[in-house]
């Protein structure tokens, strides 16, 4: 570079000098900003603002991503709940169809049994009518002086007795089967009415629960407080331990505030021991 100094024309040298002066001036101005406290503060403020803006964008992006994931999870849960609801409804429909078909079959069988019982009664009535007709004919033949063979009488009597016994046995069998089918239908009707009543009561309890505590939601396994407070509903030992802890608050008979069994407790029957009987009058 020093070797080229002697060969540079004066005009180029002046031009280079001006360019260097310009760069120096710009550099001086830039350095003055860093040397000035206000400039540094403004720069830091600008950088902080830029940083916050980037953080806000990042948070917004993460929030949107989380919302999308939650929507997908809720959609999966909703689809699962819908599938379970459809499955339960389908099972109810299938059960209703099965019960209805069973009732129809039972009604058909009952109708057939009733018809057979009616036929048996008709046959018994017919046998009785034939027996009476035979007796009338024998009496008319006797008036005319005709004699009936004793062997024919015995054969007719034996045949009628066999037929009567056969149809009487059939009639008793049909009556027994008819009663059994009627009892089965009555039992089914009672069970159906009980199921309907239980369903109504369960629905009413669910409605009251919703009124008091809001819509029922699936309890997370991480909700340790809920599972701890409701442990007695699932574990008999925990229930007994809680009841035993309550019993420690029992007071002697001389305490007026504890002279009756608390409301909601299961009361003993009338044959309870003396330790319980003395509280029943005030319960």
Automatic annotation (TrEMBL):
State the InterPro entries in the record. Apoptosis_promoter, PDCD7
Pfam families given for it?
Answer: PDCD7 (PF16021)
Q: Identify the GO cellular component terms for this protein.
A: U12-type spliceosomal complex
Q: What is this protein called?
A: Programmed cell death protein 7
* Coiled-coil region(s): none
What domain of life? Eukaryota
């Amino acid at each position: 570079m020093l070797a080229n100094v002697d060969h540079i024309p004066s005009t180029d040298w002046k031009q280079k000098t001006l360019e260097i002066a310009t760069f120096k001036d710009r550099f001086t101005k830039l350095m003055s900003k860093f040397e000035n406290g206000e400039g540094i503060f403004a720069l830091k403020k600008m950088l902080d603002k830029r940083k916050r803006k980037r953080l806000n964008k990042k948070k917004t992006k993460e929030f949107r991503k989380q919302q999308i994931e939650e929507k997908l999870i809720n959609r999966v849960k909703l689809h699962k709940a819908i599938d379970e609801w459809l499955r339960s409804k389908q099972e109810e429909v299938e059960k209703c169809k099965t019960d209805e078909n069973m009732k129809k079959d039972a009604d058909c069988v009952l109708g057939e049994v009733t018809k057979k019982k009616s036929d048996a009664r008709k046959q018994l009535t017919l046998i009785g009518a034939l027996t009476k007709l035979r007796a009338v004919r024998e009496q008319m033949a006797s008036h005319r002086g005709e004699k009936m063979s004793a062997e024919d009488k015995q054969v007719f009597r034996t045949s009628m007795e066999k037929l009567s016994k056969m149809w009487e046995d059939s009639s008793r069998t049909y009556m027994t089967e008819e009663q059994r089918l009627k009892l089965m239908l009555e039992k089914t009707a009672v069970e159906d009415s009980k199921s309907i009543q239980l369903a109504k009561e369960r629905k009413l309890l669910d409605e009251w629960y919703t009124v008091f505590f809001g819509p029922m939601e699936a309890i997370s396994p991480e909700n340790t407080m809920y599972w701890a407070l409701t442990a007695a509903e699932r574990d008999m030992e925990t229930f007994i331990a809680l009841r035993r802890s309550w019993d420690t608050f029992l007071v002697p008979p001389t305490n007026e505030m504890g002279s009756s069994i608390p409301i909601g407790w299961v009361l003993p029957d009338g044959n309870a021991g003396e330790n319980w009987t003395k509280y029943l009058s005030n319960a």
